[in-house]
Amino acid sequence: MRAVLAISRGIDALNAAIGRSVKWLILVAVLLSAGNAVVRYSFNVSSNAWLEAQWYLFSAVFLLCAGYALLRDEHIRIDILTARLSGRTRAWIDIFGTLLFLLPCAVLITLLSWPVFVDSYLRGEMSSDAGGLLRWPAKLLIPVAFGLLALQGVSEILKRIAFLAGHAPDPRRHVPHGADGAAPVEQVS
């Protein structure tokens, strides 16, 4: 079980590091947007590349932080229905929900979006807007992000199995909210 929890901690650390890094792109997008607005209204100069860069940055934050949101248990839940259930019952619901919905969708999107990225990369696809950017970096975000989300789903399943087996605390009660992201999974005697 230690090896399983080590794998889970590794996945958690990966998504925590990516989430902590990528969230700074929000500041970059805000500064880029403000700079673009100042230049556009002050000097009557604009560029589609600047607008597309803002979209790419927002897309990167939204997509790449999905696994981080799952790690921190900050995604949408129907807690009003599950709040009164025991930790074990919630763990089973999380396991089945992840196996039946999250993982199949994340893996399918990862697999289906990869050829779209490869095609865009090989063709050197550019935006159809004048002065636009390359499209493949934005298209690469999709398989990478859903791959990270799938990995985090696996980590969440491993933590819940360890909890059900009595080798770890309830993952829902030990959600990492510190600045460093992922807290180590504690051993339960």
Task: Describe this protein's structure.
By secondary structure, the chain is mainly alpha-helical. It has one domain (2-75, 84-164). Helices cover 70% and strands 0% of the residues. It has helices at residues 2-22, 25-43, 48-64, 66-71, 79-82, 87-123, 136-164. Helix 6 (87-123) packs antiparallel against helix 7. Part of the tripartite ATP-independent periplasmic (TRAP) transport system.
Short description:
The protein is mainly alpha-helical. It has helices spanning 2-22, 25-43, 48-64, 66-71, 79-82, 87-123, 136-164. The chain is elongated, with a radius of gyration of 20 Å.
- Quaternary state, please? single chain
Q: How many domain regions? A: 1
N- and C-termini, Cα separation: 13 Å
User: What Rg do the Cα atoms give?
Assistant: 20 Å
Strand content: under 5%
Backbone structural class: mainly alpha
Q: Describe the main β-sheet briefly.
A: none
Strands, total number: 0
Order of helices and strands: HHHHHHH
Number of helices: 7
Low-confidence stretches: 178-189
Helix content: over 70%
Mean pLDDT: 88
